[in-house]
Amino acid sequence: MTDTLLAVFYRDLVLSRRIGGGGSLAIIFFLGLVTIVPFAIGPDLNLLSRIGPAILWLGAFLATLLGLDRLFQADHEDGSLDQMLLSPAPLELVVLVKCLAHWCVTGLPLVILSPLFGLMLALDGPALGGVTVSLLVGTPALTFLGAIGAALTVTLRRGGLLLSILVVPLAVPVMIFSVSAASAAASGTVSFLTPFLILCALGLASFALAPIAAAAALRGAGE
């Protein structure tokens, strides 16, 4: 079973690199948003530093949504999903591994580059640290929650819009406490630990429950 899960993980990483558009598109979109916002708001550095964490998190959320519609759809089109349903490995673990591979391609580069992009928004050291840590914990939760929407729309050829409609309500709590934690680290006037611990709890809950829900949706689509 372990060999099967490792094969799925490696396969998704290789396909993402060969096909392109996943991680690179997310980074380009993230960079484009961070670059455009200062031009739209103006040269007020105090304002930029105040709303910088929210801008970075909004960019990360939208960038994560870009490739979610292909998380299971490509497997459905080439018949790989049927093999996964018949695999000796539990489908829930297969979904979990595919989500981790997707996050490594799309979410992890955003976490690594967020301090650099944060400098473009005039964030100081504590703010950069808070945003980076919150992205490290929160972006996997966005991927796992997005897997539910991807599984529900796997049979739709153009289900990207519907996927976004399904995922946004699920992601609202993650966004609220992520921005709260990052803003608390930036301001230093309120506790960073409280919203961060809630964010960790949301991340663990999505890690445990989202693969089960997504696997159930995939089984329903395969019937």
Concise structural overview:
The protein has 223 residues and is an all-alpha fold.
Descriptive overview:
This protein is mainly α and 223 residues long. It has one domain. Helices cover 84% and strands 0% of the residues. It has helices at 2-19, 23-41, 45-66, 73-78, 80-86, 91-119, 125-152, 160-187, 193-222. Helix 6 crosses helix 9 and helix 7 (125-152) runs parallel beside helix 9. It is elongated and about 55 Å long. The mean pLDDT is 84.
How is the secondary structure organized here?
Layout: H1 2-19, H2 23-41, H3 45-66, H4 73-78, H5 80-86, H6 91-119, H7 125-152, H8 160-187, H9 193-222
Helix pairs in contact: 1-6, 2-3, 2-6, 3-6, 3-7, 3-8, 6-7, 6-9, 7-8, 7-9, 8-9
Key descriptive features of the protein:
223 residues, mainly alpha, 9 helices
Helix content: over 70%
Low-confidence stretches: none
* Arithmetic mean of pLDDT: 84
Number of strands: 0
Instruction: Please report the number of helical segments.
Output: 9
Derived from helix and strand composition plus strand pairing, the structural class reads mainly alpha
Q: Cα-atom Rg, whole angstroms?
A: 18 Å
- Beta-strand percentage range: under 5%
End-to-end Cα distance? 24 Å
Order of H and E elements? HHHHHHHHH
Number of domains: 1
> What does the largest sheet look like?
none
Shape category: elongated
